[in-house]
Amino acid sequence: MDLEPFLARNGPTLIYLGCVVEGDTVMLVAGGLAHYGVVSPLAAWLAGALGAFTADTFFYWIGRWGAHMPWLRRFAPMHRATGRWGPFEIVLARLVPGARVASMLYWGMNRLSYGWFGMFDLLACPLWSAVFALVGFVFASQLSRLLPMLLRLEHRLLMLAIAGLSVLVLIRRVRHYWNSKH
């Protein structure tokens, strides 16, 4: 099966679904696909923005409905960033990898009305989608040159990651054993 016709036919749907699950990487790839003419840049941008909005809304409602759950309390310290920026922090968090989910949970937990949340997120998602798709579009040819080198390193990096995880597990077990004896 040739992948290019499949991506041309289903690209926007796949971008949408991918952005619901893991947006940053998917939008970089979508920008690369747009660079090579596999998908329309406009379709990639819109699908990414809609997928991001869907994911953000999901996490907002998790925070809203689950505010009483103890495991969500760890997001309470976000008031430092939100105190300075207010709900505009939603736009900033969308552009900072790793801050998005915590931000959406925080605003849901703190009962920001969905209307205000949606307004700021509808500003953030198209901006985010454009930035990441543009980066993928601009650097697509450079990434295709780096890919063979990365594939050669893949096996070594996997072995290094497994070794590192094994050492971490061993350290935790030794520490647990040591603490239980003393």
Please, could you describe this protein's structure?
By secondary structure, the protein is mostly helical. The chain has helices spanning 3-21, 23-35, 41-65, 79-85, 89-95, 100-109, 114-138, 140-181. Helix 1 (3-21) packs parallel to helix 3 (41-65) and helix 5 (89-95) packs antiparallel against helix 6 (100-109). It starts with a helix and ends with a helix.
Number of DSSP helical runs? 8
Compute the gyration radius: what is it?
A: 20 Å
> How far is the first residue's CA from the last residue's CA?
61 Å
Q: Outline the biggest β-sheet.
A: none
Helix content estimate: over 70%
Overall morphology: flat
Number of strands: 0
Strand content: under 5%
Average pLDDT score: 83
Give unreliable regions as ranges: none
Order of helices and strands: HHHHHHHH
Provide the structure class: mainly alpha
List the helices and strands and how they pair.
Layout: H1 3-21, H2 23-35, H3 41-65, H4 79-85, H5 89-95, H6 100-109, H7 114-138, H8 140-181
Helix pairs in contact: 1-2, 1-3, 2-3, 2-7, 3-6, 3-7, 5-6, 5-7
Short description:
This protein is mostly helical and about 180 residues long. Helix content is about 80%, strand content about 0%.
Which terms summarize this structure?
182 residues, mainly alpha, flat
